[in-house]
Input
Amino acid sequence: MAERDQQPEERPLLPRLVGLGLALVIVVVVLFAFDRFLASMQRFLSLPVVDPEPSVTEPLPAYVVPDDQVPTQGAAPGAASEQAPADASAPAEPIVPR
Output
């Protein structure tokens, strides 16, 4: 019994060959995927660099005054307009009860 424990145990040949074949297949698949990735990066980097065209040629103002509030040129500031004057008898600030 003791002599048998000292001798190296031989493994079957078929599982070793199957394991080696699977390892080689995995390595080939990973290397192929890495090659495809590098090829796509080379194609991407070889594209010409162009600046995007501006979508608007004229600058847009941040605020546009509506046409009904724009005074006509040549009209005096005190001239009658479509806007009603403020009521002079109304208080400037609202009265807040305490």
Q: What stands out?
A: Residues 15 and 70 are 91 Å apart (CA to CA). Residues 12-47 form one domain.
